[in-house]
């Protein structure tokens, strides 16, 4: 029954987003306006406009109809996320972990931003396909390729981060044979090299020289500063940029009812992230049967957060875009919580038997 509950719940957020977009500025309206334009195939925003235009040529529909249509990728992604939770916690889920998993999948931010016409719902499906493929990476190569392709078509720099994370995971994981490591490393490295010209062109870097990259980051820190949700991060040290990106607004920044809801959710993420500083997390990294999966998610969160945190001064944009990273972060938190709970239950059982 849970997929049906997710579907109804996610559709509610799609209606909420649709209603919000009627009276506020929203990218969804701009994407839907592509139905009346000639839209060539392009990477990034142009891909979503091209997709909407092609879909409308096949079957027309209203603005609300296309909200419902773009709800489906987000819904499928959430179902994959819950399936991954079940498959990667290698023992029967205690009731408290089940409730935590349900809360994770049904977080308002995870559902709201993936329920509208635009990049976020579609790229969320691509990322979840890739992470689902990482559960059994050598058996689910089509899922990995499909997920990477979807992410590349929408935000190619995120595809590069996924590829770099996979390379790092292959190098760190000790449970993957050298033959498979060499094959995987060769394939992913070749893929990144092929994608690199498109990525640099998309994000506006003239070359991959360190000086050009630094100039790009500094220029990004000064962009999107309009509006009340902007924060000047150019003077922040890296750890504050990361904290700002992942956990703000946090009540003292909240200037609206929506910001208060986001602050409450960020508080949950902050509490969950503190679990990653415990011995239980080290046990997950050391003892999990699928070390490649664990290391991929660790590197993906780490690389993705550093790149996005140093280039996103607008909290409104950060709130929306970090849905690309929260599934991996949440999976690591849930695994740690499950291991910690199991250890406590084991200690209590031993004390009782004594």
TrEMBL record:
This is Uncharacterized protein. The keyword Transmembrane helix applies. The keyword Lyase does not apply. It comes from the Bacteria. Keywords: Membrane, Transmembrane, Transmembrane helix. The chain crosses the membrane at residues 66-85, 97-116, 122-138, 150-172, 178-199, 268-285, 292-312, 324-341. It comes from Geomobilimonas luticola.
């Amino acid at each position: 029954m849970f997929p049906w509950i997710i579907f109804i719940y996610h559709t509610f957020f799609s209606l909420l987003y649709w209603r919000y977009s009627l009276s506020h500025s929203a990218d969804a309206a701009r994407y839907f306006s592509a139905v009346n334009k000639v839209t060539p195939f392009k990477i990034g925003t142009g891909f979503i406009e091209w997709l909407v235009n092609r879909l409308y040529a096949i079957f027309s529909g209203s603005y609300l109809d296309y909200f419902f249509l773009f709800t489906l990728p987000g819904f499928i992604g959430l179902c994959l996320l819950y399936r991954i939770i079940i498959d990667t916690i290698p023992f029967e889920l205690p009731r408290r972990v089940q409730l935590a998993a349900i809360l994770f999948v049904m977080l308002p931010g995870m559902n709201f931003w993936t329920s509208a016409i635009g990049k976020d719902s579609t790229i969320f499906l691509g990322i979840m396909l890739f992470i689902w493929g990482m559960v059994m990476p050598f058996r689910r190569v089509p899922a990995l390729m499909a997920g990477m392709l979807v992410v590349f078509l929408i935000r190619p720099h995120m595809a590069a981060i996924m590829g770099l994370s996979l390379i790092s995971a292959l190098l760190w994981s000790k449970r993957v044979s050298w033959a498979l490591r060499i094959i995987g490393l060769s394939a992913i490295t070749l893929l990144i090299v092929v994608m690199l010209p498109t990525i640099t062109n998309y994000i506006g870097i003239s070359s991959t020289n360190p000086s050009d990259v630094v100039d790009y980051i500094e220029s990004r820190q000064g962009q999107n500063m309009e509006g009340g949700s902007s924060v000047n991060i150019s003077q922040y040290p890296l750890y504050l940029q990361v904290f700002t990106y992942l956990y703000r607004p946090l009540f003292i920044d909240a200037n609206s009812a929506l910001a208060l809801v986001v602050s409450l959710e960020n508080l949950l993420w902050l509490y969950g992230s503190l679990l990653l500083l415990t011995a239980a997390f080290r046990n997950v990294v050391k003892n999990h049967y699928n070390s490649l999966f664990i290391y991929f998610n660790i590197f993906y969160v780490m690389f993705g957060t550093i790149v996005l945190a140093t280039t996103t001064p607008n909290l409104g944009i950060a709130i929306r875009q970090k849905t690309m990273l929260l599934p991996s972060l949440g999976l690591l938190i849930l695994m740690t919580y499950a291991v910690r709970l199991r250890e406590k239950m084991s200690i209590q059982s031993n004390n009782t038997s004594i």
